[in-house]
Amino acid sequence: MMKVIILVLLVSLLIEVAICVEGDDQNWSTTEHEEDLHVNLGLGKEKVTRLHFYFHDILSGKKPSAIKIAEANNTNNSPYLFGVLFMADDALTVGPESTSKIVGQAQGLYGSADQQELGLVLALTLHFTEGKYNGSNLSILGRNGALQSPRELPIVGGTGLFRFARGVAVANTYSYNATTGDAVVEYNVSAIHY
Ligand SMILES: *[C@@H]1O[C@H](CO)[C@@H](O)[C@H](O)[C@H]1NC(C)=O
Ligand SMILES: *[C@@H]1O[C@H](CO)[C@@H](O)[C@H](O)[C@H]1NC(C)=O
Ligand SMILES: *[C@@H]1O[C@H](CO)[C@@H](O)[C@H](O)[C@H]1NC(C)=O
Ligand SMILES: *[C@@H]1O[C@H](CO)[C@@H](O)[C@H](O)[C@H]1NC(C)=O
Ligand SMILES: *[C@@H]1O[C@H](CO)[C@@H](O)[C@H](O)[C@H]1NC(C)=O
Ligand SMILES: *[C@@H]1O[C@H](CO)[C@@H](O)[C@H](O)[C@H]1NC(C)=O
Asked: What span is annotated as the signal peptide, if there is one (predicted)?
């Protein structure tokens, strides 16, 4: 008799566990067809925005915009400074001059990630502070072959008016001072978003 009761309890416990798991499963995620997505999320049609600006990566002076935050103990033995990591808060301006109007900041990390040639890994937020896109952000994540011009960097997402963005940034070194490491880079960004 006792055995039967225990068995019944055990079976009902198992069923309950199974229901719980199934219930959790059902409520954990939902998938919608893409054609309905923009309607359900209150988004409009997809459009393309093109942005043109200059990126100022300044290592020299009293107030550098990018600073070295880490390196490996053998980074200096590597011709491409493999292992070095910088944190940047670089101005984005309309023109190439340092006094040109600022439209945003590029904030984040870049580091040397290639031992065979100069290849940086970039994880940057382009945070815009002017005009229509003031307060909206785009994210860049990818490889930057900094000695090649032009080079392409992937736009992997965005916020604000750039919600659900994807796209590409084409970069071209405008000027580079080998003594100081200061660089100005021209960017053309094409971002698809809603
Ligand atoms: C959980 O999933 C069930 C079945 O799909 C659904 O009826 C219920 O509304 C969902 N509950 C929540 C809170 O989303
Ligand atoms: C560099 O770091 C590695 C790994 O921690 C260590 O084995 C090596 O001894 C270090 N070399 C020097 C020169 O400090
Ligand atoms: C951008 O937005 C911030 C926060 O809303 C505001 O303080 C600032 O004045 C705006 N800048 C411009 C140029 O509109
Ligand atoms: C964009 O980035 C800035 C700075 O990191 C942040 O303050 C702001 O909330 C971001 N905007 C959105 C819409 O997420
Ligand atoms: C950006 O686009 C302009 C206009 O098409 C072009 O003159 C310039 O060379 C481009 N720059 C880059 C870095 O692609
Ligand atoms: C590089 O920077 C140094 C130090 O500020 C300056 O003396 C030199 O003229 C610069 N070189 C170029 C090509 O701008």
From this structure: 1-20
- Mean pLDDT computed over 97-113: 97
Model's pTM, two decimal places?
Answer: 0.81
Instruction: Give per-residue burial for 121-150: e unless 16+ CB within 10 Å, then b.
Output: ebebbbbbeeeebeebbbbbebebebeeee
User: pLDDT by residue (tens digit) across 135-177?
Assistant: 999 999 999 998 898 999 999 999 999 999 999 999 999 999 9
Q: Whose CA is nearest to atom 12 of ligand 6?
A: 177
Please give the Cα distance from 145 to 114 (Å, whole number).
Answer: 9
DSSP 163: T
**What gap in Å lies between CA 95 and CA 106, rounded to an integer?**
15
What's the CA-to-centroid distance between 60 and ligand 3, angstroms?
A: 29
